[in-house]
Specification:
The chain has 13 helices and 17 strands. It has about 475 residues and is an alpha/beta fold. Helix 6 runs antiparallel to helix 7 and helix 9 runs parallel beside helix 11. The longest helix has 25 residues.
């Protein structure tokens, strides 16, 4: 034995090994609390990523958000806001509410709901027959019945609920979240959008735009059918991974020289970040979006054994896989602008046909998502939000449909420690206007940010001479949801 070799006693060995195990445990706990920087927070040149994890303002209840956006305008009085007075006064004019404005034609008489309502759960919540599966989860849901918007136009209302403004060009809520908190996984986008298999929603990419925030915070679209990410991998016979890495490194050096000559270019920074992210995604994303790995029982839970529920079930299952891999904000859309009154929830001409079709597409997958998140423990740290851009009128449109109604809408939230089985706010006796604890999109956005550990008044970005906010100068977290 060499004279320079040091012997280590068994006691000393165990003591040092214990120190190492403690360090590993500490690192694991810090990672769980979001206090440990991601391994890939820097690019190949050592530059910190703009989506590196950021410390929240206070301890969050949620680490991620899944937004379920029903595009086209879901009728609240036919789904989750039961109004017996519509039955009683069916066929009579709506009076005592001032001038009634409609989007199309002339105001018709009050129209009862063609759908039956049944009580569900221990809370006894009345839910339409359109949503029997979601109805079975009401004890996990907090219903918000007094949402109110400003516009009865689809495009402007989409802007309202996604960006906090009726004007085009403002950052979406998903962009604000990734700007404030960064991404938990530097090999996947922090903000992912999965829209309807039939096509995009009203106002298209403006719904997930980064607006005046740096372009790196805009949403990344994953397709809900076929290959979720197009052109992700280079042809293997033309470009090896080492060659691709060398090209990106050379491109980064050129971009760095350009950035020094043109400081403050967020577009260039976003382009550099997107190249690096795309490179990392080649090894991470294929596994993340490969739902074939899921057990058949799980696929059935999401309704993937039924052609009616399979498309949205695929979206929901993909959302769960992305959440468990650290994606911060995921937005799913039901409803596409291909044929407006057929492929969206826009029930002007035939309420029964329209809502029966679209509710059947999403009811089972949404319930499956909630159950899967709950049984895996992810619901405790994931906020699920369900809403539309506005509700619909309690009066008839040509005896068969309902017109747009920005004065009243129902939304619900689940997870993130929210107490389920409660109903917040109320509309009037006919469901025409929000009347009790009226809440705006600013209030919903403030609530979402609060549950993610951010004070909405402190999440700002200096633009055009002022400190801009998602909530502008309005909004308060909903007390029943954040206490």
């Amino acid at each position: 034995m060499s004279a320079n070799r040091r012997t280590v006693s068994r006691r000393d060995f165990l003591f040092r090994a214990g120190e190492g195990v403690g360090g590993v445990a500490l690192a694991h706990m810090l990672q769980q609390d979001g206090l440990l920087a991601a391994d890939s927070a820097c690019d190949a040149q050592g530059i910190v990523s703009p989506t590196a994890p950021q410390k929240p303002h206070f301890r969050p209840k949620a680490k991620a958000v899944i937004s379920l956006f029903m595009s086209g305008g879901v009728s609240h009085v036919d789904t989750f806001d039961h109004k017996p007075m519509l039955e009683k006064h069916h066929g009579q004019p709506l009076t005592g509410k001032g001038r009634v404005r409609v989007r199309q034609g002339f105001p018709g008489p009050l129209m009862r709901s063609p759908f039956q309502f049944e009580r569900h759960g221990e809370c006894g919540k009345l839910v339409s027959e359109l949503f029997p599966h979601v109805g079975s989860k009401v004890d996990d849901l907090a219903f918000i019945h007094s949402c109110k918007g400003r516009s009865n136009d689809h495009v402007l209302a989409h802007y309202e609920w996604n960006t906090g403004s009726v004007l085009m060009g403002h950052p979406s809520v998903g962009s604000w979240v990734t700007y404030g908190l960064g991404s938990q996984n530097q090999s996947l986008p922090g903000f992912v959008v999965i829209y309807d298999h039939r096509g995009g929603p009203f106002s298209g990419p403006s719904n997930w735009s980064s607006g005046y925030l740096p372009a790196t915070y805009q949403g990344t679209v994953f397709r809900s059918q076929g290959d979720p990410i197009l052109d992700l991998n280079p042809p293997g016979d033309l470009l090896t991974r080492d060659q691709q890495r060398a090209r990106l490194d050379h491109l980064a050096r050129l971009n760095d020289e350009h950035a020094k000559r043109h400081p403050g270019s967020s577009e260039l920074a976003a382009r550099i970040a997107s190249y690096e992210l795309a490179y990392r995604m080649q090894s991470c994303a294929p596994e993340a979006v490969d739902i074939s790995q899921e057990p058949e029982k799980t696929k059935q839970l999401y309704g993937m054994d039924d052609p009616v529920t399979e498309p949205f079930g695929r979206q929901c299952l993909l959302a769960r896989r992305l959440v468990e891999r650290g994606v911060r904000f995921i937005q799913l859309y039901s409803g596409a602008l291909r044929q407006q009154n057929i492929d969206t929830w826009d029930a002007h001409s035939n309420l029964i046909e329209n809502h029966t079709l679209h509710a059947a597409e999403v009811d089972r997958p949404i319930a499956g998502l909630l159950e899967d998140l709950k049984q895996t423990g992810l619901l405790d740290e994931t906020l699920v939000v369900w809403h539309s851009e506005f509700g619909r009128m309690p009066i008839s449109q040509r005896g068969l449909g309902r017109d747009h109604n920005p004065h009243a809408m129902t939304a619900w939230m689940a997870g993130a420690g929210i107490q389920g089985g409660q109903s917040i706010g109320a509309t009037d006796e006919f469901g025409y206007k929000a009347e009790e604890q009226v809440l705006t999109y600013h209030d919903l956005h403030a609530t979402m940010l609060h549950l993610l550990g951010m004070d909405h008044t402190r999440l700002t970005y200096f633009f055009n001479g002022r400190h801009m906010r998602l909530t502008d100068v309005h909004g308060d977290p909903i007390p029943q949801l954040v206490s």
